[in-house]
Specification:
alpha+beta, 4 helices
Length: 142
């Protein structure tokens, strides 16, 4: 599965450019059949990634997809066509799984509005999510 952030961001270059991030698996996209999904263990994903990363690093390409003139910028529920231009930004590499993955996950907090200088949110959902994620984090730590 390609992870496509539905949120638009605004890059402040010599001109304003709108883009969405995509995280594309180097190994391709693979799905379980309906029968395999029904019979998979509850911790299937954790077990599978541990086995896979033990064989070799898992890599993803981080890519920016640029908007077209009629693309909706303020509605993350509307996908942009695959025909839009993209630019590879780098590689994400997973080399190990944390020994206590569950505890590590509880310590994480995702803040979608934490962006590098020159990048601004362009969609109102980013602000809404940025206020709700700390609440979720604090509830996990009660």
């Amino acid at each position: 599965m390609i992870h496509r952030t539905p949120h638009s961001t605004r890059a402040l270059l010599t001109e304003v450019t709108f883009a969405r991030y995509q995280i594309v698996p180097e190994a391709g996209i693979h799905y379980l059949s309906a029968d395999d999904a029904k019979s998979a263990a509850p911790d299937y994903l954790l077990s599978e990634i541990r086995q896979r990363v033990a064989r070799a690093p898992i890599r993803f390409t981080m890519r920016a997809q640029f908007s077209g003139p009629l693309d909706k910028l303020d509605d993350p529920s509307v996908a942009w066509p695959d025909s839009r231009p993209t630019l590879d930004l780098g590689t994400i590499e997973i080399t190990r799984v944390d020994a206590d993955s569950e505890a590590a996950q509880r310590r994480l907090i995702f803040m979608p509005a934490t962006l590098p200088p020159g990048i601004e949110p362009a969609d109102p959902m980013i602000a809404a999510r940025s206020s709700s994620y700390p609440i979720s984090y604090s509830r996990r730590h009660r």
